[in-house]
Write a structure and sequence with these properties.
By secondary structure, this protein is α/β, with parallel strands linked by helices. The protein has 2 domains: 187 residues, Rossmann fold, CATH 3.40.50.2000; 176 residues, Glycogen Phosphorylase B (Rossmann fold). The chain has 15 helices and 15 strands.
Length: 389
């Protein structure tokens, strides 16, 4: 019996989406995951998948982020450098330096590699001031990107905008687009009267505006607190912010200084509570700071669609997020400085509840175009480019 081809996956923070991807390969490939942590939701890694754990990602401070990125990348590189046998690599742009593991091993050991680009670097680091545009480091990285992408056997990403960013470095590169997804059976609409999370946080008979996820530099979550301040006197609205990140402290300060009794801030919820917390949202907020619209597509978008929440997107009009809600008529898009328009939108949803119901219904319908079946597309495309035996 011919042995299965060996495929090693590299992703420092492996969440439920990438677990779906690995599981799609597990029956036909000898799979091994190199990661710093696993964050499952509705499914665990299949038993046949081997798992090697390296250093966890530490997002608390910039220098800790970079240190854990570098340590993870170096340890994985040297582990693979001395690994015997034939294998191929499936590398996620997490951490940002990880794709270069594939490039250097292709030179040193003739290893083939496949890339999944969740975030385009160094663009993301430049956009948020971690490195300077035009600096030696930015130019050095950009030049290496052209070689990195040209040498890759397969490149996947999430949207047309991200394809354009990748092709900026190598116009001839072929890039496959596979959008993210949500499990529509795990996350689904739940009536608030039957939702223990909604009852616990007094969301019955309220229009709940929710942000759930990373409160980091690429997310304009502070605008949600500003919006809560604008409608503070209207008892119809309640705001829930769930998660953590570098902007959380400033939001907590705003909450206290402005006595935002209509704003509740909670930590990340456990995986078993996620279906209930997301289903509590009437309006789900998805936000990217100006300049980041094409650098990433938040996965929370698809979870909120599955939960049947109307979307309030804070991003540029030409962003992938804005295109999505316009396509499915499941929400409204705003720029960061359009707080008065956001307030008008909330008032419209209050005075025209039928319209809110329509948007929520459309969101749920849209979610069925973004299901875990997308994970199988990775295998179908990679099957044409696999070379090990």
């Amino acid at each position: 019996m011919q042995p299965k081809p060996k495929l090693i996956f590299i992703n420092q923070v492996t969440g439920y989406l990438f677990i779906d991807v690995i599981n799609a390969f597990a029956d036909d490939y000898d799979c091994c995951l190199y990661a710093g942590q696993l964050d499952p939701a509705y499914a665990a890694l299949k038993p046949s998948v081997k798992y090697r754990q390296f250093i966890r990602y530490n997002r608390n401070l910039p220098y800790k982020r970079i240190a854990t990125w570098l340590i993870f990348t170096c340890r994985v590189f040297f582990s693979l450098l001395f690994k015997r046998g034939k294998f191929e690599l499936f590398i996620v742009s997490n951490p940002p330096f990880a794709p270069f593991i594939g490039y250097f091993l292709s030179k040193l050991k003739k290893i083939n590699y496949h890339l999944l680009i969740y975030d385009v670097y160094p663009d993301a680091l430049v956009n948020f001031g971690i490195i300077k545009k035009g600096s030696f480091f930015e130019k050095f990285w950009a030049k290496r990107n052209a070689r990195l992408y040209a040498k890759a056997n397969t490149i996947y990403t999430l949207s047309d905008g991200m394809v354009a960013l990748i092709k900026k470095y190598d116009p001839a590169t072929k890039v496959e687009i596979i959008p993210n997804w949500a499990d529509t059976s795990f996350i689904r609409p739940i009536n608030k009267n039957e939702n223990p999370f909604a009852k616990q946080y007094n969301q019955l008979n309220k229009i709940t505006i929710m942000y759930s996820g990373n409160m980091g530099a690429t997310h304009a979550v502070e605008k949600i607190a500003e919006l809560a301040a604008l409608v503070k006197g209207d008892g119809a609205f309640e705001f829930l912010l769930i998660g953590d990140g570098s902007k959380k402290l400033s939001i907590e300060i705003t909450q206290k200084e402005q006595d935002l009794y209509n704003l509740t801030i909670l930590p990340y919820q456990s995986a078993d509570l996620l279906p209930y917390s997301l289903a509590c949202a009437d309006i789900g907020v998805v936000t990217l700071s100006s300049g980041a619209e094409d650098l990433s597509v938040p996965s929370k978008t698809y979870n909120l669609l599955a939960a049947g929440a109307a979307l309030m997107v804070i991003a540029s009009p030409g962003s992938e997020l804005s295109k999505l809600i316009n396509k499915y008529d499941c929400g409204r898009s705003f720029q960061e400085n359009e707080l008065s328009k956001m307030q008008d939108f909330l008032n419209e949803m209050k005075t025209n509840p039928a319209r809110l119901i329509d948007m929520k219904t459309n969101a749920r319908k849209a979610s069925f175009f973004y299901t875990p079946a997308n994970a199988d597309k990775y295998k179908a495309l990679l099957n044409n480019n696999i070379h090990v035996s």
